[in-house]
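Pipeline run #58 for the internal structure catalog. This entry was flagged by the ingest filter as a single-chain record with no existing model, so it goes straight to prediction. Upstream metadata was stripped on purpose; only the residue string is passed forward. Reviewer on rotation: M.T. Logging verbosity set to normal.
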Amino acid sequence: MVPFRHREIADDLRQQITTGRLGPGERLSSEPALAAHYAVSTGTLRRALAVLQAEGLIDKFHGRGNFVRRPLRRFMYVGGWGTFDPWTTADASLRVTVRTATVPAQGFLASLLDVPKGSPLAEFVCVSHEGASPLGLARIYLPHDLAPAGLLDEECSYEQTAKRFAVLSSSSAEVRETVCARPPTPDEVSTLRISPTASVLAITRTATDSAARVVEAALLAFPGDRTDAVFITHHAAAERQFQA
């Protein structure tokens, strides 16, 4: 039974959370205190807490302790224009940080944008939060010569567009999105504060112009346990029929 002691502890704490004895946002006792209570080592106690973290029941904040996770709303990613559903993002608790830079195209990025290696790219790194909880990570890239004047400025007019992870380029004629569920990268684990064993909804999006040039590429990652994706197709023939 000893090898499974951490699961017994996780079961006990899980029951306290699901029955309401430990409420949303409540801080658990310190790890040394919990280890003493269950008569186990700190390592065993941390293994139990890791189980609950992976299940999304608790959050661990460095220097503050372990807290019962508050219920998080599900959000919807709308395909085609790469934006969140406005009905689920109207809450003032949703905020997005945007960091811009100029980076060289290397490896996968050079291939994705179909540009020579080392070509300068405008980069947007967007992280959305609901309250203190990270919701999504987006890395958006444009060939530097296609970035409109002022796009990389702090007070650029594209900031609100970037904040919704939408397509930045105004010259795109086609948007292609590839969607998959996969394990998170170390950067996504850290930024989204999720377990390495969790899944992320990963979307690779490219926008091309009428000359088939890739004018934008985006790498998006969302926690798989609270994000849905919807893709809408408009049939031009049907629209003409209704207009007739």
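catalog note: Helices lie at 5-18, 31-38, 42-54, 107-113, 159-163, 186-192, 236-243.
catalog note: The first helix runs from residue 5 to 18.
status: ready for reviewer M.T.
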